[in-house]
Amino acid sequence: MKNKKLLTTLTTGILAFTLNSQSVSAAVPLIIEVINKEESETFEEGIALNDFVKIENTEVEEILSTFTVKRSEKNDNEIILSGELDSIHQLEFTTLEEKVEINEPGKFDVSIHTSEKNGEFNLVIFNDESLIEEIVVDIQQLINQLNRDLMVAESESKTLEEASINEENEQEDVIVTSDELNDESSKTSNTDNSEPKIENTENDSENPQDTKAEIENSEVIEEETVTEEKTVTSFNESDEPIDDEESVSLPRSSEVEELLFGNEEQFESTMERSLVNTSSSRTHVNGVYTVVSGDTFKSIETSFNLSRTQLIYWNTHITNPDQLKVGTKLAVTRAGVESMLSAADKARLTKSGDGAQFDTPQEFIDFIAPLAIEVANQENTEALYPSLMIAQAAHESNYGRSTLGAPPYYNLSGIKGTHNGDSVLMWTWEVYNGVSVNVLAGFRDYPSYTASLQDYANLLRNGLSWSRNYYSGTWRSTTSDVWDVLENKGLRGYATDPNYYTAIKNTINNYNLTQYDSGNYYVRTGTFLGQSSVESSVKAMKTVNPNMSYRYEKTTKTPYQNRRVETVKEFVGENAAKRAVEKIKSDKSWYSSYRKTSNSTKHVRIQSGYFNSRSRAEQAVRDFKEASGLYATIEEGQDGKYRLRTGYFVGESNAQESLKYMENLGWFAKTVETGDSTPNYVVYTGVFPNPSAVKDAHTYFASSNWNSKETMVDRQTYYYRVYVEGFPSKTQATSYVNQLQKQYGWYSSAIPVE
After folding, report:
1. CB of 157 closer than 8 Å to CB of 2
2. Would the pTM count as exceeding 0.70?
3. What pLDDT score does 345 carry?
4. CB of 305 closer than 8 Å to CB of 208
5. Domain spanning 562-686+703-711: which CATH class is it, in words?
6. Judging by beta carbons within 10 Å of its beta carbon (0-12, 13-18, 19+), is residue 195 exposed, middle or buried?
7. Is residue 240's pLDDT more than 50?
8. Distance between the two ends of the chain, CA-based, in angstroms?
9. How far is the CA of 734 from the CAs of 376, 525, 527, in angstroms?
10. What stretch(es) of the chain map to CATH 3.30.70.260?
11. Do residues 526 and 741 touch, judged by C-beta distance below 8 A?
């Protein structure tokens, strides 16, 4: 029966829409929504956790699609988490009081008690015991959302049911012909439907005054009616129209909007500002209406031209809109909401501050740029792009001229919440169940622009509670430049308007903000000798700080004349030279070789004095062999006497030991040259391109008892310096200089960019 009545109401609404009746046509989408709710009973099933907690992981998002949270029917201080797990996933559920593990596939319900501690609960989803996602959910937010959804849904359902009954009863008496439709259409064809109208169905009278001062100062508003059409206009606190340049904030995606951001300075419409009542019996005092006998929530909505959702959110102290008590106070304007705040919250309301410090956009940029550079490049954190920070701060705060962006609040990014416990209450808009409502929201109150930029940087570096890498697309370590951030939506969710990124790009281009990404200081090293050496050094330097820009240049210093190192000592024979080369290659892995010199070493023999008989000479041979281990032969001279003669020795120095053996036996002995000789050789290294390598070679040759010397070659090696660019401050550049000295022993210096 209920669906039939709603369908009748829907049919009547479509008919009225044809007649160009704004009040009924506006209700049609709501009727459709309620029919859908009647069919699905969405508001009775609770909140889909997949909508409340946004997850980028598609696998986890699919799992969460089965999870809902609803209030327990038995206990208002208990909520039930319901869901379904497949065979490959496990769930670990933790609150401040208990821990539950679900390892079996199938449906489940978990009870969450909130009577003592609301706090948070954690959902940890595993796959084969490996962590897929950890989700932190604020219980109080869930409870508040359940309260709001239930209150709005039940209220709207009852109101629409009453409306459908009235429409059904009146349907039989309403007959509209096509001629009447055409006639009615012709009467309204010149009306601009984009401009909302405020109409009174009782009688016509003069237009009421609609200034804010008169709204808030009036004690009692007398019965008034209006027939003149009014156009919605935005106003600021002084009731002056807002300059287009002031409206700079853009809508953001729901998950970021809900957690962090809001749109500042969305002011009341003409409907709210004017105190036009569609009923002659209801007036408010300073925006507060007192319920009298016979009032219903619906009639109060209609009287003050408010949506049901708006009235509910302005009066959160009302637990049941359909059971109003006489004497209950209801805020029906923004001024009324403010008047009903606690003393502490009234003290947090936006106040007129010192005003903008900057007359032109360039003044703002010149002031903010050094602060942004310092914050974006803090040590031991993810480096960010100052150009992006400056452009967003300029765009969000209208170059520091918005109320929130100017002193004393310094909130350049429109971030909600508190900062060190400080916040300011400001009017903004939010969307609940598809309805836009004006609400007072708390925005962070900063002590300075630096604190505001630091908080914004912390957001980009640390992400959101449920995704710490949410803004990793803004980090310099993961992107090539600021254009990479904007092209690949590194600021995902920050704004849903497709023109947002274009606006940021234009700001960066118009004011050449990329100049601040390169930094104000650079580091210049001492000289490196040779291109291969400088390239190797650059690779090492990048391990110290990979986010900087590196280049190297050839210096004007006289190039180094490359050298070899060779032995002064000459090796006798090729085999001796070969053995020296093998030793060098084995010990140092240097290239080395040998070459023949013009010198050679003669071959000699040792000859003894004479013996008178062969038998005596034969005994001498035996004695020499026993003493030296060498053999000797007996030669008979022309004089008939006998002598001992050894084999060949290369050079006299090698024969001296044998000579001494004979002398020790008491014999006369001498060296006798032969006609043969052995060539001499020197050993040399490859080419060394720097002095330190040459010095190392000399040291090694000396340890091998080889005297050495240098020989020049035609090749030259050039000197290079490395330039490391992109340091935002002298402090960071100097820190890098000290790190290079400590880690590599390299000299370098920090130099300001001219």
Report:
1. no
2. no
3. 85
4. no
5. alpha beta
6. exposed
7. no
8. 81
9. 17, 12, 18
10. 521-559+718-752
11. no
